[in-house]
Queue: 4 jobs
Job 1
Amino acid sequence: MPHPWWKTSVVYQVYPRSFADSDGDGVGDLPGLLGRLDHIQALGADVVWVSPFYPSPQADNGYDVADYQDVDPLFGTLADVDRLIAALHERGMRLMIDIVVNHTSDAHPWFVESRGSSDNPRRDWYWWRPPRGGMALGDKGAEPTDWGSFFGGPTWEPDPASGEYYLHLFDRRQPDLNWENPQVRATIHEMLRWWLARGVDGFRFDVINLVSKTIHDDGTGIFVNGPRIHEFCRGMHEAAWGSDTLITVGECPGVSVEHARRYTDPAAREFDMVFQFEHMHVDHGPAGRFDVIPLDWVRMKQVLARWQDGLAEVGWNSLYWGNHDQPRPVSRYGDPAAYRVESAKALATVLHLQRGTPYVFQGEELGMGNYPFDSLDQLDDVESRNWAQAALAAGRAVDEVLAVVNARGRDHARTPMQWDASPQAGFTTGTPWLPVNPDHTLVNAAAQVGDPESVFAHYQSLIRLRRQFTVVVDGRFELLLPEHPSIVAFTRRLDDQALLVVANLSSEPADLHLPDAVTTEFADGPVLLGSGMPPAGPGRPAKRSRLAPWEAWVISRGMPR
Ligand code: TEU
């Protein structure tokens, strides 16, 4: 059975506000993206995922949609989307758009009507509830449930006009849609068909596993992987794209391997893959994102191996270290100060040679790092601002709060793309909405494209390996050295082909003791790709007993040369 096309794909994520600004207003836009497709094509990615560009008050930078079938003038026009689709298709590339339907913006006409009056036909398009237990609106504990918003505070916003609360799992300007209402589901299906008719090739579904909710009068209920979630996801698949082969990924906070098998089992006809978060939470303490704990690679390897094994027979993994919601990988997991290039390459090798579809977030292919925020006023992200405010109100010192946000904030991913060393990094001729990272004079595309030693070139090589060797796409994953504190080593096997991948994810040298059988098997195998290796290292890599900081390589066996 031939692969669906997306199984050999590599997806490049574009955050339109920060990618390329064509009109000098300091905010990226679609014509800017159109002008930079060569970069993405040269990298080797064949799918472009564009974060939301729809009309929006930008309370959450577009993840608060006020019209699903148009483009915010900030980003351009529908004609620009059509041009983008045509240009990508001419290049043999595809477009994946971001579908945010767990919630809308509070400026969306649906919500304006729903809020308008309790007997408005759209009232039931959202979750309205009276205060609990006969209490008065706004009383402490009167919220219909005790749920906490992802962005801090309660999930219920009081509406004095109607004396009721409405639900928002994220910001209060992002009211949740009521998917129990069949009209809501039918309207979303229609909207997806409308975009498909326009030529888009796939969808990224924002927090899609939160759309099935139960809310009981006693204040209990659930919203993660709710009781009708598979019915809703399958219903959407059947109604919107049926058996057309799109690329679809469901963002699913709180999803387990077991759940993911159900969401991504082709027979279930829901999604091709999901974004899971377990590997993103290895350095999160019990209080979540802003509860900073040290990274433990042994725990990280356990998570990665569990997902590789868990979806080996059924389903499919997405592979990512970063996106617009995460700090920059080289700063979070690497060593941008002493080993930026080596650590960026080693992290990429470990990710791209696993089984699944890799996602490259804009700038990751250049080794872009976190921005050195030196004041809380510089923050834009609603989640970080809310958390900082609450932390200060709880008496935490400004410096401490700044240090935490500098470790975990989402704004790091959202600083402008670094195209060259010019004052605004070639991103804009105006004043960027977020400051350009001062390291752009060193870390930029112009300095890397064409340089065989660059991080960019390393990503090109990894993507070429995926295209060249089916073992990279389909090979079974087997973790080696699970207890080693810094070395990530694994094999991939498919029929008589095999790869050995070894990386020392530390700024300290590390002793390597591979199982004898593995050493023997790969002793004479050619190095398909290596980085951070000491010049003319002593002997064949697989026989080596010591790895340099951030040294990484992949050796093959039984591959046609
Ligand atoms: O993100 C959902 C999500 O998981 C993150 O918001 C995360 O939970 C949060 O940062 C907690 O630390 C999606 C989008 O990717 C994100 O940009 C949006 O802000 C969010 O949904 C709401 O639409």
Job 2
Amino acid sequence: MESHEKEALLVRWLQEATRVLAFCGAGVSAESGVPTFRGAGGLWEGHRIEDVATPEAFERDPVTVWRFYAERLEKLETVHPNPAHLALAEMEGRCREFLLVTQNVDDLHERAGSRKLIKLHGSIKEVRCTACGRIGPLPAGFSFEAVKGGEMPRCGCGGLLRPNVVWFGEYLDPEHFQRLEGFFRSCPLPDHPTPQHPNTPTPQHPNTPTPHPILLIIGTSGLVSGGYGVTWLAKRYGAKVVEINPEASALSLDVDLALRMPAGEVMRRVWPLVKAVV
Ligand code: APR
């Protein structure tokens, strides 16, 4: 299929869909200027994961870990949401059931306006106390320079604060999985609408098939835990799986439609056509 035909198909699926789950990764923020993790020039170059993104690294050397995150936080202030973030935020308002699940720890989805959002890997704009466990925004007076100079942020209880992100070797919040699974579980199977009570009035268009739910996989390599089985789950509940990524990923074998282009570029063309109708 030619790429313009693929885009036309995506437009049609999104126009018809009443349920869309977007599963996103670092590639969504790439066109905003946030480096991906595993691509050329990726963030981890020059930083071994074990030195900056594990609980052991933080225990051993919190200053190095905080410096790394302070640099990322500082960089985040200079970037902006791109058309992919903006389209996903608008989709939430126009689609009857919508959920955005991101592995990104930046805040570009929130800044674009997304609210129905699960941040699987946490947020670098939040901190967690290593002593009392309290989670909150960066403390008042948080200074990139002070942190880079070795001054560690502290909780009101005196405990050392850490970035509220999920590091390698740490568990995800099980509630996040429940919401993700619940999204698909509550989908009526396509063409087999949920049985109605006998007194329920006959729908106006009884022959209108239930549209397939759509899983949009955008900008993730799927290398972390095989994308948490999201494609398997989606397929089990009859979803159409669409991938938007210039490169094939570990999830590509499961997709029904692959658009091999940058996400912002695709959304800049596709979304205005979708929203003209929905
Ligand atoms: N549009 C869409 N996809 C893109 C773009 C773009 N403009 N640019 C790059 N990509 C794709 C790459 O081809 C790659 O498949 O984004 C993907 C980025 O993959 P990773 O760097 O592995 O990022 P991600 O899948 O989000 O990693 C998951 O791993 O290191 C951990 O916690 C970290 O959240 C991160 C997780």
Job 3
Amino acid sequence: MYTFDGNRKEASTISICIKPHTNVKRNEKKGSFSEMATKLFASLLLRSYAGRLSSRVPQIPSHLRIHHYGRLPLSTTASNDHHLGQGDDNQEDSNPRRQRRRSLLSVPGSDRRKIEKALKLQNQVDAIVLDLEDGVPVDKKEEARELVTETLEKIQDLGAGSAEVCVRINALETGRLALEDLQSILPHPSLQAIVVPKIEHAADIEFVSRLIHMTTTNTTGSRQETRPVRILGAIESARGLLNLEEIAKAGTGRSSLPFQYMDALIFASEDYCADLELIRTTSAKEMLYARSRLVTVAKAYGLQAIDMVHIDYRNLVDLQQECQEGREMGFTGKQAIHPSQLEIIHQTFIPSKRDIEFATRCLQEYEATTLTEGRGACVVDGIIVDAPVYKWAIKILKQGGDHNGL
Ligand code: COA
Ligand code: MG
């Protein structure tokens, strides 16, 4: 038995002390088994500790070196404050194929006119969600499925526009309805993502993932090609929220599934309120915990976090406020039910001009200070800029670059 004393706070003062336990015989020869085991143990501990340390040092992506900053366009949002600590989707770096989803516009699958309208809005929306679930009356489910399938075919013929084409299926608990939805839409190459509503268990994601895999994977000899269809999972109940981590694990390959299709978690406020018998207020304080938990789990598993619908859809002032709050909480996008909501959503879910300017100065000052003066922090506009703020600034500038196609 040996004792280990590692000071984990100071990188410069790691000390490991290995003392033979009193039971170890004093006359053991050098090179004996216990000595080798001691060395091995110490080297493993050091290596794992060094790994943890190096993973904490913020790395500057090469495309964000100072000489590139001049190219960052200054996007607009009216009067944002600095959002220190606001997160980005970390996974964007490791998943360059990830679709940008600031806005998801819901379109009733039974309403031809609205579907046509939505397809004309391609440049104003990031994702169009053709709805087969609660936006469709019960007696129009089949009609809606046919119309949505027809729309997927039409999109296939016309070629993909800039917006992502998604379908919201009926909840898995409906059984036959959900299965028929999946059977109808999955074979269509123009389908890009499935919104799975009312997810409550990891098994829901596993089921849909297996179906996607079976339907979209083509194996010829040793070669396997999978048409990318993503899952956007909606959390709408207390049970769904409680099981959220297992759900995220199942969708991102941290469970037994060999394939991962999940890209985003969606918070569905109205069903959530109904399930918990919450009293809906304009401040939405009754959903603070749920929204915050969803963002936390999404970020922990590299998923996008999509905020609730603003149901008072004609009230654009309150929409602006709700968007701002959602972004401050770490959401990466928001659902919409009316085209008039899109512009405000898009303007909010990008870094503001003020954020970008501040982040640029933070980066320049911090790099100059740490590199030339050897200090770990500097001050910009009266705010201390240390390693976490530097990390925030990198993310803001990356988001600014991504949203402007850089
Ligand atoms: N998608 C595409 N187009 C839409 C739209 C939507 N979600 N909502 C409205 N429009 C269109 C209308 O068809 C209309 O176009 P037109 O002038 O070419 O006919 C235009 O935008 C203005 O619509 P407006 O008259 O203001 O709204 P409305 O009374 O027709 O519809 C709602 C209001 C709320 C019923 C409608 O926006 C809607 O159905 N939203 C989706 C609801 C939904 O999906 N709920 C479930 C998910 S939470
Ligand atoms: Mg719902």
Job 4
Amino acid sequence: MAKITADALAAANAALTSNHEADLEATVGMLARRGIDAERVISGVAAFSVAAPSWAVGTGGTRFGRFPGGGEPRDTFEKLDDVAALNAVTGANRTVSLHVPWDDPKDPEALRAYGEELGLGFDAMNSNTFQDNPQTTDEGRVTYKFGSFCNSSAAVRDAAVEHNLHCVELGRKLGSTSLTVWLADGTNHPGQADFRRQFDRVAECLQRVHAGLPDDWQMFTEHKPYEPAFYSTVNADWGSSLLLAQAAGERAKCFVDLGHHLPNTNIEQVVSRLAMTGRLGGFHFNDSKYGDDDLTVGSIKPYQLFLVMLELLAHGERTGAASMPDLAYMIDESHNVKDPLEDLIQATTAIQHTIAQALLVDRAELTARQDSNDAAACAELLHRAFRTDVSPLVAEARRRNGAALDPLAAFRSVGYRAAAIAERGSEVVASGL
Ligand code: LRH
Ligand code: MN
């Protein structure tokens, strides 16, 4: 695929530059009058990067249907081309997170070299024991119908552990240093299985995977309350995830997928709790209205995302980070109606904007108002930051990263999707959800 070149970006930015500089000057001036250093915000956003999910550069679907949009990647190399195009316009998707066996490169060294050529690294690897794939089921000798790590069959558990260790070995060759373990394991009917025995089996399997981690690796346990299990899920909530991570080993941390919480869960408080235990590992950013909808980040509950970022900056402050703490950040979405890359662009810019808004909050002032129980003043500090138009600061951060002032416009202006359809065809369907 033709790459989105620096010249193409310069051309896309050219028409926007004078307005951008005027808006930037006005915003910097307005913030200075509020005693806020805009430079700290711009550099905080410019430093941030969120991994792109290899399983979401194609069109997603549901059990009711899937409507591919054409020009989808035919293999993992082409998925990297698409993530490189995404990163070219956002400057903030510098790594890709692979999902095995949807991505199972026979020549990982070649894929790693191709990634380096595109300026991309490999983030957390994702295992998959929620489907029966020949590669993960000991060539079909076992099934995950009744779970993987929680399964009463030792042969099934062994195959699942083996698959996770394969993901680690593949990731090591790609330069990744972490593994995300999301388990569909659970039950659909009361009495179908024993909660305690299922939990103990999962803990034991996670210990075996942890024992196989290279010294510089981490593993993440990702909780989810339901789907595909609809009565109980072994790793259903942050408490279960924390217990499992603690049981697995020192380098096991908890992963927060924003869509994996029951309605009205205070997710920012979950983040605060996990952070204080030292077991907060990372995020799958998305948004949802009802269930695990995997919608565009910040498109349904932007204020919740803002409150989550505030907790992350607090954690960053406590752990000595300049702004966002050093965790694993990735997007996890399913693109059923939008162009996948355009949706990932909007997800990434939503994250950039929300970090910038959260960086506007004077944390010392907030602490003082909190400790003097001045609830209205606290709300005022948050609302003022959330209601500030930070787009000139975020655009400037992208420009400093050599990316687009307006990523979606730039992506459309270079005609990437049309070129992809011409090269790959309109019928191809990418591997993934
Ligand atoms: C489960 C999940 C998990 C991935 C899958 C693609 O809902 O969030 O993170 O393995 O989506
Ligand atoms: Mn997820």
